[in-house]
Amino acid sequence: MSNFVACYSVLNEGDFLGYSLESVLPWVDKVIIVEGAYKNHVPSNRGKTTSIDNTVEVIKGFLDNPKVTYVHASMQNQNRQRDQYLKYLETGDIMLMVDGDELYCERDLSFIRNKFNNDQGLTWMKIKHVAFSKDFRHHWAGYPYYKSGRISAYRYDADWKYYARKNGYDAIHLWENNGRGNGVTHHKKGYSAKLGECCTLHAKFLKPNDLLAIKDSYYYVNDPHAMKAMNLKRKYTAQEAVRMLAARDQRSKPALIYNGRLPKCLIDHPLAPPNGNYE
Q1: Torsion-angle region of residue 172: left (phi > 0), alpha (psi -120 to 50) or beta?
Q2: 12 near 55, Cβ under 8 Å?
Q3: pLDDT tens, N- to C-terminus, the chain (279 residues)
Q4: What kind and span of H or E run contains 247?
């Protein structure tokens, strides 16, 4: 039976990281948390290499659990940052890539684990995201990963590293042979999960826009590949990114979502529906 490992790379995730950890810890074998700002992200993070909110304090509150490993790092970019948790994995581990504002229900984690354990040839899984907007009753249907999903789970191989895709910016996918081979997802067996089978619950857009901009302004509006994709002619400041995010909030049309339940740790959250039920 393979180890099931939740891997985090976090910065300024104090709002929801505790909830995220509570949602996954009972159902995984290990949790690896890499905390810190990328080198080229430090200026927008008030010159700090570590989180400027209570993220570190939240992490320390979980360190009594032997499943949890905490590492501080400030590498050059997102790929090198994520590589830090790969050092703690072994070939064959089922690796779940989790952001600090992502949560899972027990049934979703059980589906992922069972799918990999029942198919030893399976290498990756694409999972759809429900991105909450305004509260835990509604979601932003325009979120790209809601329709397309994101590859969030892998059967790890020690030869893999994170690299930008050669035909464009994509720091999510793993590559073989230190980037000189093919993207793992291009030639390995994978599975795209249906929304009714499992999903990632994403609280990103429930955060204050100022912190969201500090965390995300680099790879949304300051990365050259992202700028080209968005047809931006110049770099944006974190303050300008706040305004961009606020404009998105105005355009979004949240809708009642997902016939299910929230993770138990969120039932008493002020933004949650009564008793965690969706009607």
Answers
A1: alpha
A2: yes
A3: 789 999 999 998 998 999 999 999 999 999 999 999 988 778 778 889 999 899 999 999 999 999 999 999 999 877 888 889 999 999 999 999 999 999 999 999 999 999 999 999 999 999 998 888 778 877 777 777 887 888 899 999 887 777 655 444 444 467 665 555 556 666 678 999 998 899 999 887 787 655 555 555 444 445 554 455 455 566 666 566 666 666 655 555 554 455 456 788 888 888 887 765 654
A4: helix 238-251
What DSSP character marks residue 155? Answer: E
What global pTM score does this model have? 0.83
Residue 153 exposed, middle or buried by CB count within 10 Å (0-12, 13-18, 19+): buried
For the four alpha carbons of 13, 19, 185 and 156, in that order, the dihedral sign comes to: positive
160 token code pair: 């893999």
> What is the chain's percent helix, strand, coil content, to nearest 5?
35, 20, 45
Would you give the end-to-end CA distance of the chain in angstroms? 37
Cα separation of 121 and 143, whole Å?
A: 31
Q: Tell me the residue length of the chain.
A: 279
Q: Which amino acid is at 245?
A: L
CA distance 36 to 51: 6
